[in-house]
Each structure stands twice: as C-alpha cells, then as structure tokens.
TrEMBL record:
PROSITE patterns per the UniProt record, alphabetical: PROKAR_LIPOPROTEIN
Keyword Hydrolase: yes
Gene Ontology MF annotations: hydrolase activity; RNA endonuclease activity
Organism from which the protein derives: Caloramator proteoclasticus DSM 10124
Name of the protein in its database record: Metallo-beta-lactamase family protein
Span of domain Metallo-beta-lactamase: 13-231
C-alpha cells in the first residue's frame, strides 16, 4: 500500500492524499491551492483521475474540496463520501468557487486581449461544480462505511467546521490490517456553535495537520473582549471596521460571539452599532447552519432551547444585492463582515479598496492567512498593496485575533495526539502547515512518540507496510 502527498505538503492549502492498494486507488480530499501556490491548480493531477475509485472528504473548505469539479471534468466518476452537513456546504461552496473562476478568467482575459495575448480559461465553471452534487454520499459520524471487504472507514467529529471530520480508514492487504487516520483540520477548543473534536482509539499511521503547529492561541474570552473594544473605539472615532471572514465557519462564529456580548458592560454600546454581513455565500451558509443543529454543542443548543437566536441580532443587516453592497461605500462608523477570508476574491476587496487608506479604519483578521494572499501581505505589514490593479497605501489599523481561528493551536494538536488511547504509531506524517510550523510540531511530537515523524514534500510517496 502506498500514500502519495498530492497537496498540503510543505504548505497549508491544496489538501489531497492518494492511497493506492493492490486493488483500489482513492483520495482523501481534493482541495484547491491558494495564495502564492495558486498556479499549481493549473498543473495536471499527479495521477489519472479516471483511475480513482472514490474520494473521502474531510470537510467543505475550498482548500480541501475545491478541485473536485476538475477531477470530474477530467474523467473521475466515483463517489465522494462526506458527512451530511459537508455535502450541503460543498454544494454552495463549489458553485460559488465556479462563479469566482469564471469571473477571474473573464477579468484576466480582458487584460490579456488588450496586450495581444491569448484568453484564459477558468479552472472550472459553475456547471462543472454542480456535477459534483450527483456523486455525493452522506455518511454519519461514528459509523463504519464499508467500501468492500478490504476497506472501510469512519468519520469522527474534527470540531473545525460544521460537518468537519477526522477520517479513520481500515485497510486489509496481504493478510494484514492497517489503520491510517487523517486528522483533517482539527478545531480549536470551544469554537462557538459546533462541538469539540473527538478522540480516536487507535491508529497505525497518522496524517496530522500543523497550521498552528508553532503557536498558542490567547484566551477566547479575552480576545472576544479585544474584538468588542476595537469595534467600539473605531466607531467612536468615525471609522469603519472591516472583518475579512471565511463565508463558511468564521463568519458564523463571529456572529455568534457578537450576539453573546461576553462583556455585559459593552452590550448597549454594541447595540447602537450597525453590523453588515456582505457575502452571498455566507447568507446561504447561515441556512445550512440552521438546518444542521445535530452538529451544535451544548451551549448553542441550550441557547436555542431558551428561544435565543444564536446567529442573528437586531442590528445585523444582511446585504442582499450588489447595489446594497456598493452603498456601504458611503457609510461611516459601521462594521462590515465580508468574504473571502484571505481577501483574494469577493466583495471584501471592494470594501478594502474604499477603506484601507483611511487612518480611522480598523481591519480585523479572524482566520488563517496563507502565504502570498492579499490578507497575509496586509497582516505582515506591507505599506502598499494592489487591489484591482490599483496601488493603495495601507493607513488602516491592522489587528489579528487568532483565537477566533477554527484551527487547533500547538496545545490542541498535542492534546489530541496524546489522547489517542493506544498511542503506538508506526509512522506520523505532518502536513498542512508552513515550514516552521510543521518542523515545530514534528519536534514536539518526537518528545513523546516512539515512531518516525515525517514532513512530506509535495508529491512524495511512501510505502505503508
């Protein structure tokens, strides 16, 4: 049996792992590359899509699901296994991604034609994305799904996003049985709304993410108070607060936190501020979050039992049309939550264009910013950035609240591994992280595990005995 690392190796995005047995080839995830490695999406898959039997999907985020339409476009016709909530989210997210690919291709083509260059084709279209829905299979948590007499798998809750999963796979080959587990993206402890990650009993091989493998998050309660203070102080100064947030996951969690008002003294001040949610995808995702209450944690269910709406409040306005979005350009002293979370596409770029040069603006990052993205460049302190081809000075106040991220920090990652009941591994693979984060997690793991810990490079292949 072999495993090939076709993405998220030496980088955070593009999650994709090829497992090859004597009789089967299958993928865990098929995600899009983002940031400064985006051009990898245009390279051929390092396998023939027609030879892939099925895909197991850890969750719906585009860096884990975003190349599924390309897989089908190139001949794959197998089943994609995912949790029910993930299936619903994939439906809207891939459609939105297809729209973005079409829009970006048209914009780049227009610029290239002016220079006498050839047009650009989109990676895939909305129509391509819709094909994926016909092949989705809904699987439950904590129940074995049998592929054949030699392969079965189980989903465990990863606590990262609605429907996110750890994947435990049993494979029988050459009269041996091995268990290989993919952590997917492990969630930060006590993420609003959804449950904490579950533990697993045993695995021979482990593939674990390392997004925050070299960092510890601050207290969520303290950083929520910081969020309130930034908002209140910025609005008092007449400025706008811009919050780039992933449409699915971070947006809902930010709304939940704003709705709960941890510091009761700030409640009245926050009630007098206008909040605008400007993301068509986030609007659709809200409906899916409300549908899948089986994924909610005890706190959220308790609030619902008291008839408290956890995702809406009176001074939250959900933007419906492009015209309403454009009208926000004239507003002052408001909070705008918009996507994409890494500022690479979507309406957030328009709001940055109209606000980033103002000294009384505050931009608050609440999710991971991959290398090479506009969000990362702003967060790293660049004083001038290009938005829609126009160079802009960065005068805004820039903040990061990493504890609102959906990813476990170093402590959370180590805690999960240490709680695997029979922690005797044959090998651990550290993926889905930048070099420093992956190296640090590897070193920390080596302090207490007895096996070899590998950091695979892109397209590395390993034999699994």
């Amino acid at each position: 049996m072999k495993i090939k690392f076709c993405g998220a190796a030496g980088q955070v995005t593009g999650s994709c792992y090829l497992i090859e047995t004597n009789k089967r080839k299958f993928l865990v995830d098929c995600g899009m590359f983002q940031g400064n490695v985006f051009d990898l999406n245009y390279e051929p898959f390092p396998f023939n899509p027609k030879d892939v039997d099925f895909v197991i999907l850890t969750h719906a985020h585009i860096d884990h699901s975003g190349r599924l339409p390309m897989l089908y476009k190139q001949g794959f016709r197998g089943t994609v296994y995912a949790t029910s909530a993930t299936c619903d989210l994939v439906n809207i997210m891939l459609k939105d991604s297809g729209h973005i690919q079409e829009f970006e291709a048209k914009w780049r083509t227009k610029k290239r034609l002016r220079k006498g260059l050839d047009p650009v084709e989109p990676l895939y279209t909305v129509e391509d994305a819709l094909v994926v829905n016909d092949y989705l299979y809904r699987a439950s948590y904590n129940k074995w799904v049998t592929i054949d007499k030699n392969i079965e798998f189980m989903f465990k809750d990863a606590g990262h996003l609605l429907g996110s999963a750890i994947v435990v796979i049993k494979i029988k080959e050459n009269k041996r049985e091995n268990i290989i587990t993919f952590s997917g993206d492990l969630g930060n402890i006590d993420i609003p709304i959804i449950k904490n990650y579950e533990y697993i009993d045993y695995t021979d091989y482990l593939v674990i993410e390392s997004t925050y493998g070299n960092r510890f998050h601050e207290s969520r309660a303290e950083e929520a108070k910081s969020l309130y203070d930034i908002i209140i102080n910025t609005v008092k100064a007449g400025g706008n607060v811009i919050i780039p947030a992933f449409s699915v996951g971070r947006t809902q969690e930010v709304l939940y936190i704003l709705n709960q008002y941890i510091d009761i003294e700030k409640k009245e001040e926050l009630k007098n501020i206008e909040f605008y949610l400007d993301s068509p995808l986030a609007r659709e995702a809200l409906e899916i979050f409300e549908k899948h209450k089986e994924c909610y944690d005890e706190e959220a269910l308790n609030l619902l039992s008291k008839d408290i709406d956890v995702l809406h409040f009176d001074n939250l306005y959900i933007v419906q049309t492009a015209e309403e979005s454009q009208a926000l350009n004239e507003k002052q002293g408001v909070v705008i939550i918009s996507a994409s979370g890494m500022c690479e596409a979507g309406r957030i770029k328009h709001h940055l264009k109209h606000n980033i040069w103002k000294k009384n603006t505050s931009i608050i990052f609440v999710g991971y910013q991959a290398e090479g993205t506009l969000g990362r460049r702003i967060l790293d302190g660049e004083k001038r950035v290009k938005i829609f081809g126009e160079e802009m000075v960065v005068n805004a106040n820039i903040y990061s609240i990493p504890s609102l991220s959906g990813h476990a920090d170093l402590g959370g990652l180590l805690n999960w591994v240490k709680n695997i009941k029979n922690g005797v591994f044959k090998k651990i693979f550290v993926t889905h992280g930048e070099e420093e984060a992956s190296k640090n997690l590897k070193e920390e793991l080596e302090r207490f595990v007895q096996c070899k810990v590998e950091i695979p490079k892109l397209y590395d292949e390993f034999i699994i005995d």
